[in-house]
TrEMBL record:
Molecular function terms, GO-annotated: D-malate dehydrogenase (decarboxylating) (NAD+) activity; magnesium ion binding; NAD binding
Broadest EC class assigned to this enzyme: oxidoreductase
Family label: Belongs to the isocitrate and isopropylmalate dehydrogenases family.
Protein keywords: Manganese, Metal-binding, NAD, Oxidoreductase
EC number(s) on file: 1.1.1.83
The protein's name in its UniProt record: D-malate dehydrogenase (decarboxylating)
Gene3D superfamilies documented for this protein: Isopropylmalate Dehydrogenase
Top-level taxon in the UniProt lineage: Bacteria
Catalytic activities: (R)-malate + NAD(+) = pyruvate + CO2 + NADH
Cofactor(s) this protein cannot do without: Mg(2+); Mn(2+)
Transmembrane segments: none
InterPro entries for the chain: ICDH/IPMDH (IPR050501), IsoCit/isopropylmalate_DH_CS (IPR019818), IsoPropMal-DH-like_dom (IPR024084), TTC_DH (IPR011829)
Occurrences of domain Isopropylmalate dehydrogenase-like (ranges): 7-353
Source organism (scientific name): Virgibacillus necropolis
Length: 361
């Protein structure tokens, strides 16, 4: 029996990105070791990020996106550090990769792990879990716009930041949401826009949503404006199952979801190219957290959970499920980092997850 080899491109990035990716790789190595030669990971490291930018003037190699194409998956930490403007670092690395590799579906589950202090006062909090599907290729992050239009002086500057919505872009993410809903218990898709105020792009989205929904008569639908949806996350989250929204709105709602479920540090995500033409990228929802970087206290669960999404994507479904269980066991045992009110370090959380993995076969 030959060993199945998975080639990973690893981009730790900046700040706590480096600290949590290291932990995620320890977990992956453990799983590979345990598999007795059934599968293995071969990791290539790419030192891209803000330090790289300060030395080389760009966030990654000139043909960086091209270099990533041959890998089975990309494992990403976070980008952004004081000294490099955030729009440079984000556009130069994360968005460059997501858009360059057409990873148009960003999957962000909101999960309520056991043993974590609840920030949400809800009678049935343990049963809550929903997934945000974020359009990841256009919308508000299309980069269409400009500054410094001619004839304007200091104090009179004008900036234009446009959103771009294409029928194709809306349709593929909405269909993705419906297909996913069919695999889940409740079979419900909630679409989030702001089409009362944004009368072009978001109205197009709404129209596509209604049209596509006709192909899924077995799936329940719901349509919300984003401001009301923010309240719904807090007031009636039991109504949510698959929530599909534009690039910006789902970005904001996913931070809200992760905070409600305990901390930004536990939210995982997958940037998928569902057609499989290009590798997909797995990363936590949080950023590089410069305020806690270098202290060894970052919560690695978001990034380890993203490794679980990667395992599932690579067809290692059992390993993914076992890892999810080991993460749940760890929080249930009260092994928590500071963001969750605990005292354990980044490394200790991983040690506990690995120990629990050995116990869940
Ligand atoms: P952030 O997510 O880095 O941090 C927000 C707050 O949550 C901070 O107080 C931080 O300490 C805490 N936090 C985040 N992750 C944590 C973890 N794993 N464990 C414990 N606490 C955690 O967002 P912020 O502060 O707005 O941005 C910092 C930098 O990260 C900026 O440069 C920003 O552009 C970048 N960023 C990058 C992202 C990416 O690479 N995907 C996503 C979001 C922000
Ligand atoms: Mg975000």
């Amino acid at each position: 029996n030959e060993t199945k080899k998975f080639r990973l491109a690893v981009i730790p990035g900046d700040g706590i990105g480096k600290e949590v990716v290291r932990e995620g790789l320890r977990v992956l190595d453990h799983l590979a070791e345990e598999s007795n030669g059934r599968f293995a990971f071969e990791s290539d490291f790419f030192p891209w990020g803000c330090e790289y930018y300060l030395e080389n003037g760009s966030m990654m190699d000139e043909n960086g996106v091209e270099k990533l194409k041959d890998y089975d998956a990309i494992y990403f930490g976070a980008v952004g550090f004081p000294g490099v403007p955030d729009h440079i670092s984000l556009w130069g690395l994360r968005i460059a990769i997501c858009q360059g590799l057409d990873q148009w579906a960003n999957i962000r589950p909101v999960e309520f792990l056991p043993g974590i202090p609840r920030r949400l006062n809800h009678p049935d909090v343990d049963s809550l879990n929903w997934v945000l599907i974020r359009e990841n290729s256009e919308g508000e992050y299309s980069g269409v716009g400009g500054r410094n239009f001619s004839g304007r002086g200091p104090g009179k500057e004008v900036a234009v930041q446009s959103s771009l919505f294409t029928e194709h872009g809306c349709e593929r993410i909405i269909r993705y949401a419906f297909d996913l809903a069919r695999t889940r218990k409740r079979k419900k898709v909630t679409s989030v826009t702001k089409s009362n105020a944004q009368q072009y792009g978001m109205v197009l989205w709404d129209e596509v949503f209604v049209r596509v929904s006709k192909d899924y008569p077995d799936v329940e639908t719901d349509q919300w404006l984003v401001d009301a949806m923010a309240a719904q996350f807090v007031l009636h989250p039991e109504e949510l199952e698959v929530v599909v929204a534009s690039n910006l709105f789902a970005d904001i709602l996913s931070d809200l979801g992760s905070a409600l479920s305990g901390s930004l540090g536990i939210a995982a995500s997958a940037n998928l190219n569902p057609e499989g033409r290009n590798p997909s990228m797995f990363e936590s929802v949080h950023g590089s957290a410069p305020d806690i970087a270098g202290k060894g206290i970052a919560n690695p669960i978001g990034t380890i959970g993203s490794a679980s999404l990667m395992l599932d994507h690579l067809g290692l479904t059992d390993e993914s499920k076992r890892l999810d269980t080991a993460i749940e066991d760890t929080t249930r045992q009260g092994v928590l980092t500071r963001d969750l009110g605990g005292t354990y370090s980044t490394v200790q959380i991983t040690d506990a997850i690995i120990k629990n993995l050995s116990e869940v076969k």
